[in-house]
């Protein structure tokens, strides 16, 4: 009787904690989704938006690590070199993401970003020497169909098409980062990985500050600061801490909501209404991305049980 009461009490505490973590995950993903909309209010070139974002976020992440007295030391020189190269990929990723949004729309930028499983399908088996499954190939084909549906016409004179091209480059670089982070996550904390990648990206983007002629308005500075401090460093720290308290499958599903949140923000704040093609193509892309996430998690669960 007493044991049952204790067990029930523990279950209630766990459920309450779990719900809180799920709420924190949603808040973090909502902040991620807000990045694209804020980027539309910043009128400086995309490379400078990316530079300001990683500078602000890396400084805040460094401060958090110092306050919490977390070690930022990596195990070997190879890891330092590898994570710095990943920072270069991140620099390209953020620049192309904001470029996609600036030349087209938030919807196009976020939808095409969600196609990264298309690249992971073929890159992951090569890098980690894993078997390429027929289901994964079929998912990649459907993802590609979703992109084709979204394209209004194949012309570089069309801003939507140009935005999709930039978005696909952004997606490719995110896939590369995902593979790198798979390696790093088995050895280091999420905050340590994020700090090195953001700081390295800031160093690689630094030359742009001297080459690109730009006039910073107060609105631009404020927007970039929010992107770096709130939508990146704070949101990522919240996401990492909350992720430990929920199932990976739940976290994956909530992460998939980033694109949806971004489109909703764009509609409410910017008045951007996705075209019919964007809605259909986006639905296909998001559906496949969600299915891919669920399939991977189910595969992990089976392996754990074995």
Briefly characterize the structure.
The protein is an all-alpha fold and 306 residues long. The protein has helices at residues 2-41, 46-67, 77-103, 106-113, 116-128, 134-150, 159-184, 190-211, 218-243, 248-255, 257-270, 276-305. α4 runs antiparallel to α11 (257-270).
Describe what this molecule looks like in 3D.
- With 306 residues, the protein is mainly alpha-helical.
- Helices cover 83% and strands 0% of the residues.
- The protein has helices at residues 2-41, 46-67, 77-103, 106-113, 116-128, 134-150, 159-184, 190-211, 218-243, 248-255, 257-270, 276-305.
- Residues 300-306 have low confidence and may be disordered.
Write a concise keyword list for the protein shown above:
306 residues; disordered C terminus; globular
Architecture blueprint of SSEs:
Blueprint: H1 2-41, H2 46-67, H3 77-103, H4 106-113, H5 116-128, H6 134-150, H7 159-184, H8 190-211, H9 218-243, H10 248-255, H11 257-270, H12 276-305
Helix pairs in contact: 1-9, 1-10, 1-11, 2-3, 2-8, 2-9, 3-4, 3-7, 3-8, 4-7, 4-11, 4-12, 5-6, 5-7, 6-12, 10-12
Radius of gyration: 20 Å
Major β-sheet annotation = none
Shape: globular
| Strand-residue proportion | under 5%
Helix/strand order: HHHHHHHHHHHH
Considering DSSP H and I runs of 4 or more, what fraction of the residues is helical? over 70%
The averaged pLDDT comes out at: 82
State the secondary-structure class: mainly alpha
- Unreliable stretches: 300-306
DSSP summary: helix tally: 12
Distance between the termini: 34 Å
Secondary structure: number of strands: 0
